[in-house]
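USER:
Class, as today's exercise, take the chain set out below, and explain how the chain folds.
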Amino acid sequence: MTRVPAASRAGRRSEAGGFDRRLIAPMILGSILNPINSSMLAVALVPIGRWFHASPAHTAWLVTGLYLATAVGQPVIGRLVDTFGPRPLYLTGTTLVGVAGLLGVLAPSLGVLIVSRVLLGIGTSAAYPASMFLLRAEADRTGMRSPSGILAALSISNQVIAVIGPTLGGLLIGVGGWHLIFAVNVPLSAACLVLGARRLPRRAATSAAAVRPGGGLDVIGMALFAGTLTAFMTFLMNPAWGLWWLLVITAVAGTCFAVRELRVAQPFLDLRVLGGNLPLLATYGRQWLAYTTSYAFMYGFPQWLQDSRSLTPSAAGLLLLPMSAMAIAVTALTGRRAEVRGKLVVGAAAQIAGCAVLSAAGSGSPMWLLALIGAFVGVAQGLNGLANQNALYAQADPARMGSSAGLLRTFGYLGALGASAADAAFYRHGATTLGLHHLSLLLLGVSVLLLAGVLIDRSLRRVGRVPTT
């Protein structure tokens, strides 16, 4: 069980369930580092492109660089959290965030700025798995079976911050230029370091496998996983016949990874357990589909507003406020309910509605209609993110909560990478209205597939309605 110094226990636990309340602030603050860096860039791609005289196809690497690093880093660092505990990984990751922020501010070229984003992806990969690990450990310590209130707080901080980010990014750019969206990482990193050093337990519960000699650390498996995912996502970022060799690398590395994980005593990813957990695999699939749509909209819509509607970055960010408001509202209203199926049905339906209206938007569309599109997407993002997180908590192996939570983020960023590739493909000659319409039709198909997956998954009826441990 998680051990907390006796002197610090009094007055630090939530009245509801006995949770250590001092853990909540570093958990939430650390977990927002990734979504805020993901989303603020949405309104900065155009000014950064103008600053470095780069096309949208080149600035897209600012998006994909972070997602590539994060998609690989989340489950790997999550497994390290499972093995060594959350504190050292949390402090190391948040330190790297501050360093990456400074590098971004001082970047003399687009290439260096991309390196900064990659470092941000690695650094921000630690806090969310660490937070989910701490949440599971506290739930075990206190006996609370379904800490839906704490999960709702994490969902608000992760999902809602993602939609507040474009508005915040637009305001920062309006005040001091795009450099400020990198500079903001320095004070955030410092705050995380102070809170983490003072409040995170020096010793935390780990699984029995993790504390045996060797620590259950499958370094070769991690390396093969990273190689497989990197090759696949690099192809996904720019799918072309000339890059067929990346698919060969993906197949070879993936086969070697599967063979090793099935044979090693303490695998990085237990494929037998994971393959037998169909509800969890379905949750990962839903995360992929939901994030494909939400991130394609988050990056594609503001670019269209700026290029085709001639709005400033600040104005484009403000037009996304309804998205932020609806995400906050639905998460706050439904967060304490552990059931997930209803949230997913409404979320997928709202996503379909938003994509349908988006396909009819044009240069003459009234502002209220454009704001309505954002509101639909906000409802979808708030509900889908919250429901998938709650489902993961109920379905994942408690001994591998860190790596399972990291893998949930990986599938989200696979969707984000697919979204980035779609934006780049449809905006190859600029963010035109025709490109927006083609993008919206693709996203409409993805959203219909998401709804169909929710409706046929009977296991969702049990999540939140039966005791979970």
About this structure: Residues 278-307 form the longest helix (30 residues). Residues 1-17, 206-215 have pLDDT under 50 and may be disordered.
